[in-house]
Structure formats: C-alpha cells, structure tokens
Amino acid sequence: MNNMEKYEGQLFERSPMIYEPPPASEGGSATNLIVPLLRRWYIVVVVFLVACVIGIPGIWLIMEPRYDVTGALRVAPILSNILTGEADKGEISNYQSFMNTQAEMVVSTQVIQRVADDLASKHLAFFEDKKTGIGAKLRRKMEGGIIKPDPANILKQAVYDNVITSAAARNSELVKVTMTGNNPDEARKIVDAFIQAYMLVEVSSSLQGQDQKLTVLENERKVLAEKLESQREAIRLLGQEYGSVTLTGRYDMMLQRVSNLLTELTKVEAQRINLESQIQMLEQGNAKGLPQEMLNRRNERINTDPTIQEISRNVVRLEQDLIASKQFMTTENPLLKQKEEFIESFRKRLDERRLEVGKDFDNMAAEEVNVASNNTLLNARSQLEQAVVYEKRLKEKLAMEDTNTVELGRKQLAIEEMKEQLASTKERYDTFGQRIQDLEMERKRPARVTVAYPADIVSIQDKRVKLTMAMVFGALALGLFAAIARDKLDSSLHTPDDVIKHIGIRLIGTTTSSRSIDKALLSKQMSEDYQTIRANIGLLDSGGMPKRFAVTSPGMQDGKTTFSINIATSLARSGKKVLLIDGDLRKPDIGRLLNVPREARCLTDVLLGNKLEDAVAYSNGLFLLVSDSQISIDPYELLASPQAAKNINQIGEAYDHVIIDTPPVLAFPDALLWAKMAGAVILTGFAGQTTGPDLKETRDRLVEAGIKILGTVLSNVPVGQSYYRYGYDYYTRGGRAQSGRHSHRQHNMLLPMDTPEQKPNDTVS
Q1: Which of 43, 21, 10, 7 is nearest to 725 (CA)?
Q2: What CA–CA distances, in Å, run from 581 to 382, 568, 590?
Q3: Do 282 and 380 contact (CB within 8 A), yes or no?
C-alpha cells in the first residue's frame, strides 16, 4: 500500500472551507511588521553584518580618544620698582583687562608664526593637514599624509575652530592655554611652544623675555658691526686709488685742467679757421698776390671784431659748463643735449661772422691786392696741417681728461653716499647699544609673566564605545528598514493572506514547499494538500467537482503544469476516469514529464478532426491527450476554429473529468480559448515568484472574457503558512524524524504514480 492509498476517502468528511485571513487584532500593525522581517530575515542579517563590519572598524580606526592638554602662565598683578623698591602695577590700569589682553596675545598672529617656525622642523602629524575633522583624517590616511599646507595656517585654523584656546582663568592669576587633540605628546609640544613663543614675543618684562630680547639685540648689533666694517672697507677701497677718500681738491684740479685744454683748443680752432679762410681766398684768387702784411691786417681785423670776440667767449663758457654738466648728467639727459646744440649754434654763428668780417675786409682790400703769391698759399697750407694735427691731439687729450674727470666725480658721489650710509648704520649701532644697556638694567627687575606649569593632560574623551553601540543599533535599524523596504517593494505573493488581501480571488488551497518539510513526510503532505484542493473544488457553490476545467497561470514557472498533473492524479486515484489535456501547443511539457511516446501525441490531429479514435494515450492511471512541439499550424488559429471545440467536447464525453493545462494567460491568448472550451478555470501561483499585479491582470482578462474562475491555488507555500498549517505539526509531534527540515535539496513535486498498467476499456463510475 502506497502513501496515497492510506489517506484516500478521508477528505469528504470535512466541511467546505474558503480561506480567509484572521480578523485584525490590536497587534495587527506589529504583525504587519514582524511578518516581513521574518520573511526577509536574511536581509536584516546581511545589512547588519555589512554595516558592522564596515562601521565598527572604521570607528576604531578613524575615531581616536580626545585629550585636553593645558599649560598655564602666571601674570603677577604687582611688581617692585628696581630703583625704589616700592610696589607698583607696572603700567597696568585694569588687571582683568590686562589678563584678557594677554590671553588674546598668546594666540596672536606673531606668536602663531613663531610657533609654526619652531615646530616646522619637528615633523608633527598635526601639520599634515589643516583640517582636524574625521573626513580630513580619513583623507590623510588614504593619501599617505602627502598634503602639507603652511603650519601657520593650520594653527590659525585650529585657533578659529577652538581646538587651541587661550583664556584668563577667573579669580586667579593664570592664563590657560588648552589644546584638544588625539595625540597628547604633540599637544604638549604645541601648547609649550605657544607658551614659549608668547614669552619671547610679548612678555618684555619677564626675565626670559629680556634674555631673548637681549640676544636678538646683540645679534642685530653684531650684524650692524659687520655692516659698518664692510662699509668702511668699501670706502677705503674706493679711495685707495687716489690715496684719500676726500677727492674734492683733486676733482677741482681736473676741472681746471679740462678748462685750460678747452681754452687752448678754442684758440687752435680759431687759428685753423683763419688759415682755412686764407687758403680759400688764395685758391679762389680773391687774395692772389696778397702781401703778408695785408693778410695780417685781415686776420687782425677778424680777431678784433667785437662780435667774434663775444661769441668766442660764450663758446668757451658754454663748453666749460658742458664739461661740468657731464659729471652729473647722463648722456641721454635732454638738458645736456640742449647745451651741446647751443654750443654748435654759437660755433656756426662764429664761423658765419668770420666769413662776414673777412668778406668785408676782402672787398675793401680787393683794390689793393691783385696778385696772390703761390708761396703764401703753400705756407698757409703747411700751417693749416700743423694746426689740424695739434687740434686733434688737443681733442684726444681733452676727451681723456673729460672721462677721468667724470669717473672721479662718480667715485666722489659714491663715497659721499656710502659715508651717509655709514653714518646711518653707526647711528643704529649706537641705538642698539643703548637699548642693550637699558635691558640689562631691567633684567634685575622681577618678571611679571612666568610659566605657572607646563602642558599636561587634564581630561580624556573617548567616544568609541558609545559610537560602537550606536553603530550596532544603527546597523540593526538599517537592516530592519532594508528588510521592510524590500518587502514593500516586492509585489510577489508569499502567503495565502496576500492572495486574499491584495487580489481578492477565492483561495481553494495551497501546496507545501519542499524546502520547509521533511523529505520523508513530503509525499504525505502533498497528498493532503491535493485532497484539500479536491474537497474545496467539489464543495464550491454546492455544484460538486466540475466535469471540465482549465488550469492556467499569469506567467511561466508558476506551477500550473505540476498542479494539473497532480490534481488529475489525485482524482484518478479516487476512482475517477480523468483525461488530462496538454493545451500548451507551443511548449508542451506533460508528454515529456509522463514519458508519452512521440507517436502517441495526437492533440493536434484531434483539434483538426483528423484522428479521434485511439488518440488518447494512457500512462500511470491517467488518460492523456498531448501534442508534439513541432507543429506547422499557428496554435491560436487552430484553437479558434469551431471544429476544435466540437472535437474536444466529443472526445471528453467519455470521461468523468477533463483537465486542460493551458499556456500562461499573459503570454498567449491560447489560454482564454481553452478556458472558453472548459467553461471554468483554476488559477495557480508560485509563492515568492508570482506577483500580485500579474495575478490580478490575469483575473481581469478572464472576467472580461466571461470565464468562470473557480479559485486560486498558491504553490510552494511554507508549511507554517499552508492551508492546513497545523497538520504537519500533528504528525511530527508523534515522534517522527524531523531532521533535514530546512534542507535546500530539490524534491520531485509530482505525486507518486501507479505502475503502468493496461488501459481499461470501461469507464470508472
């Protein structure tokens, strides 16, 4: 006796049931949250673990304990006068205001710059980046600490962000400098650096501040002493060529020498011009045979002309002025060029006047002189050549003397300028010396500001434990939220409640998922499931089990073929003669699953009316009418013909029940034609895969076509949510084995078939 025979006949004693969800209770909202969480528990676990694996190490890696490091300065309110010994406030009018001012001075720009200069060479991690937030620290770790901005800017930002603070403590003489950071050692160094820098920069009355200032002043005085020596050496080198640094007398002598040369050059030029005039007159024949006496008179006339003498004096004076100006002016100076133009114009005027006077004399003496002597012309030319040579030598000498004079003048100016710089440096040198003496006197006075205590840790803040706990709860909340959100976005049907609530289709039963039940009890549970479905179908509307009905689904892989075979098998085992038709002409599966020979797959011939006798195959207690997948006719056109429905009705008259497995409704219109032939239809869905919108659309299409929907069967339902959810516990609590309940091994979902037997000839009643 097999497992199915043991439970046959027991189902009909049960009352008909229409599955309805339990009434809403006060805890309904909580149940609505718990059920999705139990269904999506793996999402909660995965999100929780991922968030914790990423977040908790990140917290302990990035977050570090925060240390408050504080150092303090003591500001004495009263000091003793060094001379009189009397107590005084030392230029403090309001002690509290003075304390607040000193607190601000501790974090002033000057102090920050000194701190930055002092700590720049110590390679502190604090100066790797100016930002101190978590994101900046993570960025530093990721980039290997390459970023190194200006340390002064980092300190300024830390002061602005209150990472480093300076404040006067109330009711005390202390100014406290505090830094909050992750590295207490670096914080101590930075706070101490602020205190020391403040002592060096601002606290002039303290002993340490005075020593530092004395050191600075002495260093500056040494620099000035070296500068004085170098300036003296430079002046000495300039005057070494002349044996003296006072060049005024030598410069005046050189100017006089240039003036004398210029006067002599003017005379030679006048003589040259005179000779040129004589030669010109002799060559032109105007003074041919002119006696020497007449020529002397002519030259005397020209030389004694008042205008010529006045112009000559002006030329000499202007040339002397030009030589003097060259000592102080550059060659591009417009005034120098203007003077040269004046000299040139006077010279031109001098030449013109000489020609005019000579021409007048020549006109007067033209009547007296008729013949010029060749010897006179030769003599004049000889004298002219001598005059030209002499003039050239004078000009060269004058140019050399002029250059020497200019060079001497420039050296004299440089020496005078360096003497002024030497005097200024000497004055500063003396001032620094006086200031050093004053500070040495003030050193004996007690310091107003002293170091009360060096930097040290005053408190520790470690938030990692709290953040870790927060991360754990946050990760759990995130996992719960992700599970609920995933469930809200999932439109798949999972439980019978989903079918009733969201689709509104009558539920006539469920089949149990093989993953939620022991393998040993699967066959028994499946038999119970299909007996329940048969009972509910038979009791619907008090009409008994329909003679013909179709089985369809919204889409593929929704379990309709498995259901068709199993419900047909269950009916056959109850003693009914059942014809199972594989109506999916496009992808027939029943013939393959039940091993029907290919030559016995005659559904296409039946629909065409070509072969009615012996078209039905018999296998495992079922009468089968299946088709081959290789057909040349369009399945829809084949089913739409009137002959097809007539032939199906004719061949189905010989059977108690005709069950038609159809294609998916949302895939092809064939399912609607088969449903019309059958007159009723059962919808199947696969838990976790079939979606509510698809099942609803399938229902709407069937309703629009006027097809009666018997109800819905939901497959692959966990045993705890099945139609008879307590039946499994009833058997397992009897001591049966429960191992492998959560196994993921695949099981055959078809009911056990009878052994092949000979096809009966008579109809079972």
Answers
A1: 21
A2: 152, 10, 8
A3: yes
Strand partners of residue 536: none
- Between CA 151 and CA 164 the distance in angstroms is 14
Q: What is Dmax (Cα atoms) for the chain?
A: 186
DSSP state of 577: -
Low-confidence ranges of the chain (pLDDT < 50): 1-28, 130, 204-205, 286-289, 370-372, 728, 730, 733-748, 755-765
Alpha carbon distance 73, 177 (integer Å): 8
Amino acid 527 reads S
Contacts of 620 (CB under 8 A, 6+ apart): 569, 594, 753, 754, 755, 756
Residues 6+ apart with CB under 8 A from 200: 114, 208, 209, 212
Beta carbons within 10 angstroms of residue 606's beta carbon: 20
Q: pLDDT tens digits for 118-157?
A: 888 888 888 875 455 556 566 656 655 555 578 888 888 8
The pTM for the full model equals 0.44
CA distance 302 to 360: 10
DSSP 542: G
How many helices (H) and strands (E) would you count in the chain? 25, 14
| Domains assigned to the chain | 66-205+445-461 (no CATH), 248-429 (no CATH), 496-732 (3.40.50.300)
- What's the pLDDT tens digit per position in 386-445? 888 888 888 888 888 888 888 878 888 888 888 888 888 888 888 888 877 777 766 666
Beta bridge partners of 624: 580, 617
User: DSSP label at 23?
Assistant: P
